[in-house]
Amino acid sequence: MKSYESDFLSPGMPETGLSAEELERGAAALAEKGKHLSRRLLKTEIFEYLLDNMRIGSDPDDFFPAFGLWGQKPFEKVLAANLAERSTEIDLPETPTGEISCFMPDYAHSVPDWQNILDSGFPGILARARESENIFFQRFGESTEKRQFFQSVIRAYEAVLRCMERLLRFEEHSRARPEIVSAIRRLTEGPPETFYEALLLIWCYYQFSEYADCLQTRSFGNWDQMLYPYYLHDRENGVPEEFFRCVLRNFMGKIQSMHYYWGHPFYLGGTRPDGSSGINELSYLILDEYDKQGFYDPKIQVKVNLNTPVPFLDRVLGMIRRGHNSLVLVGEPCIRRAMLKAGYSEEDARTAVIKGCYEYTECHSAVETAPFHFILPKIVNNTLRCSPDAADFESFLKSLESRIDQLCRCIFPAVDRMESMLDDFNPVLMLSGLSPRALELGIDGYAAAPIHAHTNIWLAGPATAADSLSVIRKYVFEKKLLTIPELLNVLDSDWSGFDELHRMILNDPCKFGNHDPEADAMLARLLKMFTSRINGRKNSRGGFYSTALHAANAFLSSGKRLEATPDGRRKGEEFSKNISPQSGRCRNGVTALIQSALSLDSSEFMADFPLDVTLNPAAVRGDEGLAAMRALVMTYIRNFGHAVHFNIFDVRMLEEAKRHPEKYPELQIRVCGWNVLWNNLSPQEQDAYIAQAYANEAGVA
Questions:
Q1: Which of 356, 504, 530, 631 could form a disulfide with 218 if both were Cys (CB 3.0 to 4.6 A apart)?
Q2: How many CB atoms sit inside 10 A of residue 664's CB?
Q3: Which helix (H) or strand (E) holds 669?
Q4: Could you tell me the strand order of the sheet in which 299-304 lies?
Q5: Considering just the CA atoms, what is the radius of gyration of the chain in Å?
Q6: SS3 of residue 292 by DSSP
Q7: DSSP 522
Q8: Which residues contact 131 (CB under 8 A, 6 or more apart)?
């Protein structure tokens, strides 16, 4: 496969600007010189500096130019310094180590209104900002703060157009491909008219927002819906299919070459206003080219509903069972039910954007932040240490609830203070130009303008925590095999010297993921302790708090720091991810796993209720296997399951891949909401997948 690294990173490329390192030094110098400026004006000056001075480059076979910020964020150190300087104003909470992780301002989960961008183009967004400035001051009179807001947006988009014009001059003098020069020229003048121009606009907006504005763009949008009119236009004008394929593989290859750990998503499908499926011929073409090229980034999210065409779903599932783990299936019935319950409209639910790993939200004006994780296994362990004399299990659970109350009283005021300062930490420029409400009121498009400005709290390790509670109930309070102090001694020893007890607990069938009523009810009760205290709570941005069962990489990073847990997990091992069981504990088959997951109310977890499924290749082989896989997915979707994604492998393949990594350079593993190559996993991570594969081989998972 062609490498899509830009030629300007290679010897022989003419200098077209400053290197990323030089840009970083320049941004730091501007920050020092501009200390007297407001944060918004300082950010604007640095944004202009970056776009006016970064290198640009391209390859004769490359439809998408590379910019000199490629994978780097020169403004990020300035942002980090400001956060450190202002942290005393946040009054960071003092909580026991490990119960809360990733406490930080979140600029990583926004999605721009792509349809707005495509309809307006850069010149249209700039013109609207100028018009809005005039209207605002005619209505409300002069204000220095508001003037600075409008000027920041206007100057940012002027800088964008200067960069595009510089790119146009470069392309005119360095290559002879007229369609590329024509497309760039078109984007300097107005909105796109062709399929290629639309994708080029998406690419450029993404680069400028992510790497100069320091606001992550966590979805490239609903490709087969928003690009379909351009596709039809081009087909009617005689553009051959191979050209679309070439542009698509060029874009996707460019993304994969950036080596972004979490993956860059776009999504397919959805439901039209008349209730029919949005799947069309472009959906198939995108999927086919993705399959042919063997891409794993960008990752593809597929909206699935009862109206999803079976041939398309089978095409997706066929790719998954051949190793395309980067495809995730997202249930529209779950999205609709949860969003209506949270107060969104039917139209909001129907057109919900899928972003990040598999989260969902309203597609036009929502900005949902995810400022921290609750680490549930650690909270259970710390409750054990603080409740050595609990008389019975119910008393222990009351202590656990008191601990959760204490954590909430500590953390939420700090989050509110932090999020009230989002526009001061990092005032966003490009997104503000897209928001009608931001332009109407002269307020930041990320921090203040969204109608749905919600704060999403991720609950990490739920199954590990619930299994630990089941062990405490059974072995401490029912069987009375050991006291809480004795259990703490076992955990402190990391189960060393307690082999018989360890085997007994590991083999105890009361584990979430096996359709055990007691285990499933235990997890439901634990999660209710959090959702009842979080969901609907008002935040400082006019929105509310919600919960999600999304682990991201906390199951690894926090797992490495977490001592042994009562469920039998050893110190440093990963804990459960998403709504899935602890690794190796799923022993009653995939049907039981689905039943356990569906025993929970997915509507309580607005934006995120993902399930990881591991299958043996033998279980999905042939037409019967494909039909069984489809039935499994549709059972989950029909019963309000949210996201489901797969690993399909056997023990022999994984053990061989561990012994001889050179033989498996392209073996993909679904980690959480993203894919990695097997050879990039640590030995400990590889062992966890091998352990789950052993359970599969036994015919029990």
A1: 356
A2: 17
A3: strand 668-670
A4: 265-268, 299-304, 327-331, 643-648, 610-615
A5: 26
A6: helix
A7: H
A8: none
Q: Which residues pair with 369 in a beta bridge?
A: 455
**Among 182, 167, 164, 70, residue whose Cα is nearest residue 126:** 164
CA distance 597 to 401: 23
> Which residues pair with residue 648 across a beta bridge?
615
Cβ–Cβ < 8 Å for 701, 659: no
Place of tokens 């949008």: 221
Euclidean distance between CA atoms 118 and 227, whole angstroms: 9
Task: Collapse the DSSP code of 520 into the 3-class scheme (helix H, G, I; strand E, B; otherwise coil) and give the result.
Answer: helix
Give the whole-angstrom CA distance, residue 606 versus residue 339.
Answer: 7
Confidence of residue 313 (pLDDT cuts 50, 70, 90): very high
How are beta strands 100-101 and 373-375 bridged, if at all? antiparallel
Residue 463's contacts (CB-CB under 8 Å, 6 or more residues apart) are 511, 512, 513, 523, 576, 579, 580, 581, 582, 585
**How many angstroms separate the CA atoms of 430 and 412, rounded?**
29
Vertex 546: Cα angle to 541 and 551 (nearest 5): 120
Backbone dihedral region for residue 141 (phi beyond 0: left; psi -120 to 50: alpha; all else: beta): left
- In 102-222, alpha helices (H): 114-140, 144-174, 178-189, 195-211
Q: Are 547 and 371 in contact (CB under 8 A)?
A: no
What's the rounded Cα separation, in Å, for the pair 580 and 464? 9
The Cα 491–Cα 481 span in angstroms is 15
Q: Is 144 exposed, middle or buried (0-12, 13-18, 19+ CB in 10 A)?
A: exposed
- Count other C-beta atoms under 10 Å from residue 409's C-beta: 11
**Residues 609, 547: Cα–Cα separation, whole Å:** 10
Q: Given a cut of 70, is residue 216 above it in pLDDT? A: yes
- Residue 223's CB: how many other CB atoms inside 10 A? 25
CB-based contact 562:378 (threshold 8 Å): yes
- Name the region of 450 (left: φ>0; alpha: ψ -120 to 50; beta: rest): beta
Kindly report, residue by residue over 348-357, the tens digit of the pLDDT: 999 999 999 9
HEC secondary structure over 41-70: HHHHHHHHHHHHHECEECCCCCCCCEECCC
Residues in the chain: 701
What is the value of pTM for the model shown? Answer: 0.94
Backbone angles phi, psi at 359, to 5 degrees: -65, 160
**CB neighbours of residue 236 within 10 Å:** 8
The pLDDT of residue 696 is: 64
Burial class (CB in 10 A: 0-12, 13-18, 19+), 442: buried
User: Distance of CA 54 to CAs 16, 27, 65, Å?
Assistant: 8, 12, 13
Res 567: pLDDT:
98
Spatial CB neighbours of 245, under 8 Å, sequence gap ≥ 6: 285, 289
328: tokens are: 């995730």
Q: With contact defined as beta carbons under 8 Å apart, do 195 and 247 qualify?
A: yes
Beta bridge partner(s), residue 321:
none
Per the CB < 8 A criterion, the answer to whether 525 and 465 are in contact is no
pLDDT, tens digit, 9 for 90 and up, residues 394-415: 999 999 999 999 999 999 999 9
Quick: pLDDT tens for 101-136: 888 899 988 899 999 999 999 999 999 999 999 999
